[in-house]
């Protein structure tokens, strides 16, 4: 083994502290916003209750605010015990299947092979975790990163779980349960009918949309769960826009507002920013879990109520984190090799470690690698037909 191989092996197996610090807020970051394009929706698909890909949008939900006479809305469910929700993990598998289903649009020829036409492929959950890291001091996470044919793939490997007896967590669990009950009353299957009455087994089913945007010269491709809203100003085949429905207390104290603005408010902005929403709907509840009103809230109001510099720091940190990943991955070209990037929320530090070859964290499926080779002949045939 020569010296280069020894150094490479050492770097692969050692835990390295990266140069980025999430809790550092450089003055220059608030002077300008990073170069970023508005997200473009490429397409959508459904996800079954069992997390499987469905090549349709039949599970799309639409915001359908009830008429005034139905208010206040009761968010309590006396017939069911409140338990911590286990949100479905946004696996990258379905995104890879979507890429295959849209191969003519999302793959391109590079010399004698096909590659994905993106620098980064991930889920929205990955981007949200990174962008909120500057303001996260309690719960860390670990990402898995692979590089194959010039594209970097990122997935969530682990998220630190809160203590079930922590008071903040108990409030969060109750809030999530109330939000779920609110959405049952305010979402419909077509945006024009009664709220959906899907049973509990169907709660994890959803519609995902795929988006792309440019950040600091990097082309990022990701998917995200979406909620739609009919848009009377749109006359194309897609007569709807993306929106969201969130919940907050309507009589918060000054301190409670401060906490809300540095946590939930910035999270709502990040979600909206990533998929290009202009507004969301915010339901205001009282202490007895009754919603008295639902307000259409412009995205600008979310960070105006908070701190106008937070979106700057958040987006700059995403730029730095992706740049760090790009440098660490270098010229690696192996879908089985995984680098783990672990975020320590208390310290604001990120460490990375390489696992060479197939390992317990390998997540880019073999079928996807084979598909890129198989579709090459299809691309040749399509080119012959076009000529």
TrEMBL record:
GO terms for molecular function: hydrolase activity; metal ion binding; nuclease activity; nucleotide binding; RNA binding. Its main location: nucleus. It is an enzyme of class 3 (hydrolase). One of its GO terms (cellular component) is nucleus. Residues 38-369 form the RAI1-like domain. Its EC number is 3.6.1.-. It comes from the Eukaryota. The keyword Hydrolase applies. Its cofactor is a divalent metal cation. GO terms for biological process: NAD-cap decapping; nuclear-transcribed mRNA catabolic process. Keywords: Hydrolase, Metal-binding, Nuclease, Nucleotide-binding, Nucleus, RNA-binding. Decapping enzyme for NAD-capped RNAs: specifically hydrolyzes the nicotinamide adenine dinucleotide (NAD) cap from a subset of RNAs by removing the entire NAD moiety from the 5'-end of an NAD-capped RNA. Belongs to the DXO/Dom3Z family. This is Decapping nuclease. It comes from Drosophila ananassae (Fruit fly). The gene is Dana\GF13104.
């Amino acid at each position: 083994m020569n010296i280069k191989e020894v150094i490479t092996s050492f770097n692969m197996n050692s835990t390295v502290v990266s140069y980025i610090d999430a809790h550092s807020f450089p003055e220059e970051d608030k002077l300008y916003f990073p170069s970023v394009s508005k997200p473009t929706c490429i397409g959508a698909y459904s996800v079954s209750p069992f997390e499987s890909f469905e090549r349709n949008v039949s599970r799309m939900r639409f915001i359908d605010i009830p008429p005034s006479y139905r208010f206040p809305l009761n968010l309590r469910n006396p017939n069911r015990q409140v338990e911590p929700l286990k949100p479905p993990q946004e696996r990258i598998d379905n995104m890879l299947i979507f890429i295959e289903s849209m191969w003519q649009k999302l793959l391109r020829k590079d010399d004698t092979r096909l590659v994905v036409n993106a620098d980064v492929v991930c889920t929205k959950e990955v981007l949200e975790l990174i962008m909120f890291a500057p303001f996260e001091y309690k719960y860390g996470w670990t990402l898995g990163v692979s590089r194959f044919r010039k594209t970097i793939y990122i997935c969530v490997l682990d998220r630190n779980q809160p203590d079930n007896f922590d008071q903040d967590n108990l409030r969060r669990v109750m809030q999530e349960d109330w939000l779920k009950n609110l959405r049952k009353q305010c979402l419909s299957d077509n945006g024009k009918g009664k709220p959906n009455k899907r049973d509990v087994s169907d709660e994890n089913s959803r519609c995902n949309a795929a988006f792309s945007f440019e950040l600091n010269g990097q082309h990022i491709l990701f998917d995200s769960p979406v909620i739609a809203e009919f848009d009377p100003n749109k006359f194309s085949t897609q007569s709807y826009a993306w929106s969201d429905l969130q919940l907050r207390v309507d009589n918060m104290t000054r301190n409670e507002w401060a906490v809300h603005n540095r946590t939930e408010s910035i999270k709502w902005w990040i979600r909206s920013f990533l998929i290009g929403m202009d507004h969301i709907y915010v339901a205001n509840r009282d202490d007895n879990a009754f919603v008295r009103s639902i307000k259409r809230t412009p995205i600008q109001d979310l960070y105006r109520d908070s701190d106008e510099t937070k979106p700057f720091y958040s987006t700059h940190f995403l730029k730095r984190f992706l740049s760090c990943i790009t440098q660490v991955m270098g010229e690696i070209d192996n879908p089985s090799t995984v680098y783990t990037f672990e975020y320590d929320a208390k310290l604001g530090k990120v460490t990375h470690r390489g696992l060479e070859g197939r390992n317990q964290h390998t997540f880019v499926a073999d079928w996807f690698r084979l598909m890129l080779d198989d579709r090459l002949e299809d691309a040749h045939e399509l080119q012959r037909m076009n000529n």
